[in-house]
Structure formats: structure tokens, C-alpha cells
Amino acid sequence: MIEKVYLAKPRGFCAGVVMAIQAVEKAARGEERPVTVYHSIVHNHTVVERLQEGHGVHFVESLDDVDRLPGGGDTVIFSAHGVSPVVRERARALGLSTIDATCPLVTKVHTEARKYAREGYTILLIGDSASHQEVIGTRGEAPEHTIVVGVLGKRGEGLADPHTVEVPDPSRLVVLTQTTLSVDDTRRTVDVLRARFPGLVVPPSEDLCYATKNRQDAVKAIAGNVDAFLVLTSTHSSNGMRLLELARAACGRAERLETDADLEALDLSGVRSVGITSAASTPDDLVQNLVARLRALNSALEVVEEGEWENIEFREPRKVAPDAPLPRVMR
Question: Which of 92, 89, 84, 87 is nearest to 114 (CA)?
Fold first, then answer.
């Protein structure tokens, strides 16, 4: 029987996710026609379902599908993961107004990509998947200057191996990263690249976002106290799956749950203490529901919550008309 729960802090929504969800909710209330979001606004099934069912929001993977939806739509919202200039150009060609809910920390990486491409650098973009929306968006800023490199030990289509990746000019080389990777794995990957390419430029402000690092640190702080970890995350959340991997490595056992209902399928016999954390896109009420379910199994359950919440807010994105100028893309 589980007797003690350690709640990781911080956990759950980061500032970028809060900003993105609020932007969708506000647009859904204020727009006369149905609001469309390009890709999942954040990578969490519950969030998407709540926006669909509670606010009538549509989600598409192609902007060409916007006008085919019931009632049409003339405003599209870009997800927190960011989009490539090709998507922005297509939205303008279709006459769509846009609300850019890209996390500002992702936008920072896009800005770096454009800057270094203008200066003639090859960009080694470290990512956990070439098909992740954030990687697609960042690479799209300078496609002919960018090579996507897998995190150390990560293999997949479109990912170059940091041990063997070839570059046109080792003296004009910079490394950028997806914002939601494992902190430790990313640093090891950069070390491999730096050893191979001594002239590698590493921007002074790292690309991994504060929320990713803080949530991983919180798991590390708890791991020594628990028999197992329960991680609330959707499978397509990069930061959430990195939390799951970290928790598993740190304490030997970790289980993924989409919601508290998944607890029923887990065999936790012999587990007396658990840590609980959640992805940066997971609503905290899902965590509280999980704690309540555990308390229903043991009314004497002890819950420990230590650490600090983040105190960061991002500015609300504004609506942009289809004829607004676009940032220049590097080919």
C-alpha cells in the first residue's frame, strides 16, 4: 500500500503553455467565426479535448483544411511549439489572420537560427525527433543551413549521429537545441560535438527552457526518497517523456499515466512511496485527481510537497492581419 506521496514542485503548466491556452480561450470567446489551431496547441490530450468540447476549437495539421471545417474560419492560432516561415506564408496566402502562441523561448531559438544562417554558419540543431513540431519549425527558419542531430543515443529518421555528422565548414558551426530535451543528455551531446569540432559556437544563453530544467531538477530531488515515480504526460509531449526517462533512471521505476484512471492498470504492490510529476502541458487538476485516488485507497496517505513554483508570465500574443510583413527566411 502506498503510504507517502512526494509531489514534484514545480510541475505541470509552464508560462508558455499558460499563455498559449489562454490565447486560444480568449480567441474562441471573441471571434465571430470558429477558431482553428494549427497542430495541437500543446501536447496534451486532455487540454485539446477540453478546448474542442468546451470552446468549439478546431485543430488541423494543414492550413488547407481550415475552410473545409463547419462554419469556416478566418483566424488561425499557431501552437506553442512554433511554426516554420512556410506555414506563415501559407496562412497569408489563404488570407488568414494569425495569433502566434509560440512560446517566446522557442521564438528565441528561431531568432538565433536566422542570425547564424545570415552569418554563414551551419546549424547543428539537436532534437529528439526530426518530426517534432518544434524541430520542424526551427529547421524551417534556415533549412539549407541546418542539420538535425539526435540526442546522444537517440536514433531516428532524419537524425544525424553526433559522432559521425559531417559539416561543410567546421570553422563556421553553431549548435542550437530543441527546448524540451533532457538537460544531461543534451550537455553530453554538445560535449561530443565540441570534441569533434573545437570551433563550435555555443550560444551564451542555452536553448533548453527554464521549465524543462526546473522540472527535471525537481524529479532528481525526489528520486532518492521514493520506490517509484508516476509521471502524468501524453506520449507526444517531449518534455514529459524526458521526465519519464529521467525518473526511471533515477529511482529504477517510473510509470506513465494519461489521467488518474490509468492507475487501475498498474501493479504497485510493494511500493510504499511514490513521486508524482507532470509534463509542462499537463493540467494540475489531473495531478490532484491522482492524489485523491491514492488517498481513497489509503485515508492515512501522507503528501509531501516541497520546492518553489515558478513566477514567470509571458505577454499575450496579438492578432496579426494576413498582409503583415513576415521575418525573412534563410534558404
Answer: 84
In the block, residue with C-alpha cell 538535425: 148
Q: What is the phi/psi pair of residue 147, to 5°?
A: -120, 125
Distance CA 135, CA 124 (A): 11
CB 112 within 8 A of CB 152: no
In tens, the pLDDT along 273-304 reads 999 999 999 999 999 999 999 999 999 999 99
How far apart CA 70 and CA 229 sit, in angstroms, is 43
The residues near 126 (Cβ < 8 Å, ≥ 6 apart) are 148, 149, 150, 151, 162, 175, 176, 177, 178, 181, 186, 189, 190
Based on the residue annotation, tell me whether 166 is a catalytic residue of this protein. Answer: no
Grid cell at residue 319: 492578432
- Report, as an integer, the average pLDDT of 206-223: 95
Out of 32, 119, 134, 166, the active site residue is 134
What would the pLDDT profile of 81-129 be if each residue is shown by its tens digit? 999 999 999 999 999 999 999 999 999 999 999 999 999 999 999 999 9
pLDDT given for residue 109 in this prediction: 97
- For 95, the grid coordinates are 488570407
Q: How confident is the model at residue 72 (pLDDT cuts 50, 70, 90)?
A: low
- Look at residues 84, 190, 173 and name the one whose alpha carbon lies nearest to residue 120: 173
Q: What is the pLDDT of residues 224-241, one digit of tens each?
A: 999 999 999 999 999 999
Phi/psi at 60 (5° precision): -135, 155
Residue that has been written with the C-alpha cell 489562454 in this structure: 22
- Residue environment code for 105-142, b if the CB has 16+ CB neighbours within 10 A, otherwise e: bbbbbbebbbebbeeebbbbbbbbbbebbbbbbbbbbb
State how far the Cα of 2 lies from the Cα of 82, in Å rounded to an integer. 40
